[in-house]
Amino acid sequence: MVNSVQNNSVTAILLAAGESTRMGQLKALMPWENGVLIEFQIAELLSGGVVEVIVVVGASYEKITPFVNKFRSARTVFNPNFKNGKTTSIKIGVRAMGKRINDILVIGVDQPRPSRVIRDLIGYHQSTSAPITVPVHNDARGHPLLFRQDLLDDINEIQEESLGLRQVLKKWDAEIAELSVESPIVLMDLNTPAEYTQAVRLFKNS
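Above: the chain's sequence. Below: its structure in token form.
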């Protein structure tokens, strides 16, 4: 069993390297509240207790970076292999942490979450010795995923051809901590225009 490591700072890896094919436009720059989605995500992550946000981008690097640069505690890293899947972005994000030993929160740009969800997830994670903490709504696991820093080696071994990040979840399944969340917001993904419209409505009512 991995030794427990508690109360580490948390680095968020925000995945924004996808091509948004099903959405038909760049997800990161879609309108969201008083700005665009990537701004909302970074602001909520930092407000929720994350100490830094590493935004992994692909072909849209030049379009997204100016919005990321508005935040002192956020930066972009470029994934030249973004077409090879999300796994490559996760590993590049982890590598960009350098020697910083933080717990790791992984979330997609198409998974906006309010700061209270981030804050509750981090607080619950730090109160347990669990290797991984996930939010749950009606018995369904959602996002973001929060990994203890001593699972870095496991994350670095993931492969797109197999289960990707799910292979880490599978390995530690019996020890995953689940935070019950009343709102279905933790299950939300914005993959299509219809899902985007539904998500905007859900946020207004939450």
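The beta strands are 10-16, 31-32, 35-36, 52-57, 74-78, 103-108, 132-137, 140-141, 145-147, 177-180.
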